[in-house]
Amino acid sequence: MNKYLAHSGVCSRRDAAILIKDGKVKVNALVVIEPGYKVQPGDSITANGKKVSPEKNLVYILLNKPKDYITTTDDPQKRKTVLDLIKTATTERVYPVGRLDRNTSGVLLITNDGDLAQKLTHPSNEVRKIYAATLDKPLDKKSFDQILKGVVLEDGPAPVDVLAYADMDDKTQIGIELHSGRNRIVRRIFEAVGYEVKHLDRVMFGGLTKKNVERGKFRFLTEKEVRNLKFFGKGKK
């Protein structure tokens, strides 16, 4: 069932499992709470009261997300969402892959390909992410080395692959590369050593960059980019 919902463009497989367990999915008007339910031909399925069916037309959109937009498909508080920015892109039901918090800008993938979304957000696939951070004060060498060594947060160790000063004359400007997709991970890493991130921009996600895409604008992925995302890591040992 969770795979069926993902193919229907409702959400990722992981989020679909939560939706099902929360009792928000019905099969033939009956609530189903088991994500492993086998969908049968002729089943009538609804999620959050809306009828769903597998998507035929897969869509892949790269958005250069601005600040003050939330990464969700719907917001009860009626705040601006990233889907407001791509209204003209497609009539298919699409959703963001992973999360960028409200005050973080940069590369965000939006799609209705549930299998790809699952792959890109699963921790075991270690999808590469690069951020440009502006701190409230210059990052000293002790803190720099501490972050590279690895800080431990409330939800476990937070390893960093690469850390660098973006400008040696302004050590508040930091580039950071990591694979984790945990909530607010970059901000929490700097907070752990006594710094506040004043501005955070994701400049790369899984090989995708915001090159030639203005803030608040979007473009469709090329066939090559989609292929690279689907088959990245196939040759990893």
What would you note in describing this structure?
The protein is an alpha+beta fold and 237 residues long. The protein has 3 domains: 2-51, RNA-binding S4 domain (Structural Genomics Hypothetical 15.5 Kd Protein In mrcA-pckA Intergenic Region, Chain A, Roll); 60-123 and 210-231, Pseudouridine synthase I, catalytic domain, N-terminal subdomain (Alpha-Beta Plaits, 2-Layer Sandwich), CATH 3.30.70.580; 128-205, 2-Layer Sandwich (Pseudouridine synthase), CATH 3.30.2350. It has 6 helices and 15 strands. The chain has helices at 2-7, 13-21, 114-121, 141-149, 185-192, 223-231; strands at 25-27, 30-31, 45-47, 50-51, 60-65, 95-96, 104-111, 129-135, 151-153, 156-158, 162-165, 173-178, 197-205, 208-209, 218-220. The strands form 3 sheets. Strands 5, 6, 7, 8, 11, 12, 13, 14 and 15 form a 9-stranded mixed beta sheet that branches. Strands 2-1-3-4 form a 4-stranded antiparallel beta sheet. The longest helix has 9 residues, at 13-21. The model has no long low-confidence stretch (mean pLDDT 90). Belongs to the pseudouridine synthase RsuA family.
